[in-house]
Amino acid sequence: MTVAVLGAGAFGTALAISLAQNCPVTLWARDLGDMARSRENAKRLPGFGFPDTLSVTADMSIASRADILLLSVPMQKLRALLQDNALLLADKRLVACCKGIELSTGLGPVTVIQECVPSATAAVLTGPSFAADIARGLPTALTLACKNDAAGEKLQQLLTTPNLRLYRTTDTIGAELGGALKNVIAIACGTAMGAGLGESARAALMTRGYAEMQRLAAHLGAKPGTLSGLSGFGDLTLTCTSTQSRNYQLGLSLGKETAFDPDTTVEGAATAIAVQDVAQRAGLDMPITAAVAGLLEKRLDVQTAMNALLTRPLKEE
Ligand SMILES: NC(=O)C1=CN([C@@H]2O[C@H](COP(=O)(O)OP(=O)(O)OC[C@H]3O[C@@H](n4cnc5c(N)ncnc54)[C@H](OP(=O)(O)O)[C@@H]3O)[C@@H](O)[C@H]2O)C=CC1
Ligand SMILES: O=C(CO)COP(=O)(O)O
């Protein structure tokens, strides 16, 4: 068995390092930089040397020879990567490792894979995990979702490593929505903390945000149990409470009104806008998502957004 990871960001690099404990792994990057010589990804995940079983390439025809390919580029870049390499990726097992909803279509990564490479077996790997924790060998548990349970079980076995424990589901919609939507709520929580609104406000946003996640997921046909698992509740908890999270960090800077590096990968930003559109079309009430979209689009300031949430009509929980 061989694995390739397409996209040498922090997460792709960490997964490649962990999976190289199991089998030969090829890490594909559009720009290798100094990685082949230094045996480290100094740009995205500094401080973690590559094991001997990990090779790097910028040649997709080499990477695509692997049995299983993990797709670890940001969500908004996934479709182009698949379209550009559709012939090489035909019939492969493709596992999306990105968390988000496509801005132009409102679709998640599994559907995007199915649209671009219909002959592939599509899956998504998601859940609470920081790249540095995985690379450090710290214990991590993730969800592997694949509609075909037999294919999913095989992937679960092959991609579990000594420190990366995978659970399995056939509910790809629930798994990808959990990973996408928690980022939006993490921006809201970071904003509240940055603006000094307090930990009680954060707990309220996490809980009511989780209600929004469940509402949209149910509307789109997800199983309720998936949202309460690692890919939903698990990742929501991690991302809304850790300053390691870039989504939370963006929120902190919105709340403090400080500058934020626009080149940072913050999946929740595009996803908030995409989800707001999906919710509006479906007639769903998602006020926290709408508030985050309003903040990001600079239609709202923090105080106005918070007042709007607090003065909504009172309701049953
Ligand atoms: N970091 C983490 O802890 C975790 C991240 N994730 C998810 O993983 C996904 C990737 O995030 P992460 O690795 O952190 O992001 P990073 O910001 O670390 O890296 C993004 C990577 O994507 C590459 N990339 C961007 N556009 C393209 C493109 N068009 N073609 C090829 N490569 C491209 C970049 O290449 P280049 O260097 O050349 O710009 C870079 O290597 C996100 O969806 C994120 O939510 C999930 C769990 C944990
Ligand atoms: O998805 C993550 C943790 O599970 C990483 O979160 P950020 O993308 O916010 O850094």
Automatic annotation (TrEMBL):
GO terms for cellular component: cytosol. It catalyses: sn-glycerol 3-phosphate + NADP(+) = dihydroxyacetone phosphate + NADPH + H(+); sn-glycerol 3-phosphate + NAD(+) = dihydroxyacetone phosphate + NADH + H(+). Pathway: Membrane lipid metabolism; glycerophospholipid metabolism. NADPH binds at residues 11, 30, 99, 131, 246, 267. Its EC number is 1.1.1.94. It comes from the Bacteria. Sn-glycerol 3-phosphate binds at residues 99, 127, 129, 182, 235, 245-247. Residues 3-150 form the Glycerol-3-phosphate dehydrogenase NAD-dependent N-terminal domain. Keywords: Cytoplasm, Lipid biosynthesis, Lipid metabolism, NAD, NADP, Nucleotide-binding, Oxidoreductase, Phospholipid biosynthesis, Phospholipid metabolism. SUPFAM superfamilies: 6-phosphogluconate dehydrogenase C-terminal domain-like, NAD(P)-binding Rossmann-fold domains. The keyword Manganese does not apply. InterPro entries: 6-PGluconate_DH-like_C_sf, 6PGD_dom2, G3P_DH_NAD-dep, G3P_DH_NAD-dep_C, G3P_DH_NAD-dep_N, NAD(P)-bd_dom_sf. Residues 171-306 form the Glycerol-3-phosphate dehydrogenase NAD-dependent C-terminal domain. It is found in: Cytoplasm. Belongs to the NAD-dependent glycerol-3-phosphate dehydrogenase family. Catalyzes the reduction of the glycolytic intermediate dihydroxyacetone phosphate (DHAP) to sn-glycerol 3-phosphate (G3P), the key precursor for phospholipid synthesis. PANTHER family: GLYCEROL-3-PHOSPHATE DEHYDROGENASE, GLYCEROL-3-PHOSPHATE DEHYDROGENASE [NAD(+)] 2, CHLOROPLASTIC. This is Glycerol-3-phosphate dehydrogenase [NAD(P)+]. It comes from Sulfitobacter aestuariivivens. The lineage of its organism: Bacteria, Pseudomonadati, Pseudomonadota, Alphaproteobacteria, Rhodobacterales.
